[in-house]
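A reminder before we start the practical. When you read a complex entry, don't treat the lines as separate problems. The point of joint prediction is that each chain is placed relative to the others, so the output describes one connected object in space. Small molecules and nucleic acid strands, if listed, are placed in the same frame. In the example below there are two entries. Take a minute to note the order of the lines before looking further.
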Amino acid sequence: MLENLKNNDTINRKIQFVEKIMIKNVKSRHKNVQDMLTEMIHSGGKRLRPLFLLLSAEFGQNKTESLYEAAAGMEMIHMATLIHDDIIDEASLRRGTVTAQSRFGKDYAVFMGDFLMNRSYLMLNGKVLAPEVRQIQHIMECLFYGEMLQYNGRFDRKKTVSQYIRIAANKTASLFALSFFLGAKISECEESICKALKRTGYYFGISFQILDDLLDFSSRESDLGKNIQKDIHMGFYTLPMIFAAKQNPEIWGLIQDSRFDELQQCIRAAGGFRKAAELGEQYLEKANSELAELPDIEAKKIILHALQDMKNALQEFS
Amino acid sequence: MLENLKNNDTINRKIQFVEKIMIKNVKSRHKNVQDMLTEMIHSGGKRLRPLFLLLSAEFGQNKTESLYEAAAGMEMIHMATLIHDDIIDEASLRRGTVTAQSRFGKDYAVFMGDFLMNRSYLMLNGKVLAPEVRQIQHIMECLFYGEMLQYNGRFDRKKTVSQYIRIAANKTASLFALSFFLGAKISECEESICKALKRTGYYFGISFQILDDLLDFSSRESDLGKNIQKDIHMGFYTLPMIFAAKQNPEIWGLIQDSRFDELQQCIRAAGGFRKAAELGEQYLEKANSELAELPDIEAKKIILHALQDMKNALQEFS
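Here is the predicted structure of the whole assembly.
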């Protein structure tokens, strides 16, 4: 997803600068932690949150260096929550990359997440205006809240689409919304533009989570990946399963008996993948509408392009 | 320890007010989390950090309500770190009380710690001056760093007294130092008084950790408590053992063979408890010296009383 962004030199340079700031900000007298976090940063990531923050900032006039620090802060918060989430999920792989907890141990993962979260605050606190700091901390709470909702809802066969969306809104969309918003705010966009970009991020975030959950079932792997099997065992049921179960409750039997190949076929036959993809596309449409009113600058084109890429990726499931 | 503080009505009223603020500040739309944290608050604690913050504030003139919020914030940070530490220690009991992780599960404990840490920031951010917020976050890092040092040093039979002190300084003394400091700072004490109180808190914190580690071996229980056995199994060697091992390396054999009763006797015979207690007393002396220069107000008498209580508790081991 978002493949074509990788070939944009300007964007790549900006992201490299953000990564530099991240690496600077995980420097610590505790070399061990510094090394682990530096390694995590080097091991990459899509850097969507900083990217969108910087693109959002293009709508305003005040391009200060603090934009890059805020962008780095967004990615660091994201990394911190990933580290803590992986402790809960007992994940050993995150889309092919070894997770912090399996690399360094669960114990270290707790501290590393705490350390990184604290460094993000420390960094943002100096660079962002006071009201925004409060908002950042409110969003942090949404992130935890979303994870807790998800954890509470394990094994819930009656989980509804709106419950799923509520989880996605909190655990994923909130940070995208904040990233879009902060870029606009720091670069001093007018309030209406800040809000429209915030909503763009929110809608993007929901469809991003839907796509993410779809990709876990990706047909590129001959059988379901180990992590998704573990997720299912742990009771994390995502949108394709929720849609499919409405149509065909037999999927619960397949889950119970760990018949994962059949499960995948069953979800497909019951339209689970297609319906999830369609809902994802609807959220992308909402994001598109928010952007429609904004000035036609280059950054807007790039964001629209990213939305189109997402749409293409979703359509592979429909 | 600090038994006589419990009978001070003024102090009790103040601490009840702090607890009220804590309870107000864990209110959440996520009722589950709110209930768990409220229960944790109700289940008590010595509240030393808020207490010392408020006592410190008596040296200044500016007694605002924000003192109580800062006091509540200190205790909430403390609780958050306890929750996360218990995940690492796999502790099921914390001095007789069931820990968050065994009560609610490891997964919840990660979120609850994150949530509480975030709420502490949120609360302190509005109430404390900007430079102090940075200092709070620096101290947070000391707390993680201390825990990491401790974790790194597991099974290290060559652990020195100064390594132990370094861990205690970071994981414990730093937050006491901050509590003393913030009280003085918010109530607008002069810089020299702020610094003297900060050092008082630091020295108190070190001796507090030493006493805490001694109490784990407390003779009130006929055999070593399960948690200390687990700690030893997990490789957490504390000051009495470090001193004893210098004198008699046989203790490593006793540890390896899980002969805990003999271990305790061996530590005693090798002077491990006594030497640890003496070092604790030395730090109390330093705290006393810092206070000597300060005005003789009622709060100072209470702090001195607390130091005397600590000294008595330590002397039971010497």
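Discuss with your neighbour: Strands of chain B lie at 93-94, 97-98. What might explain this?
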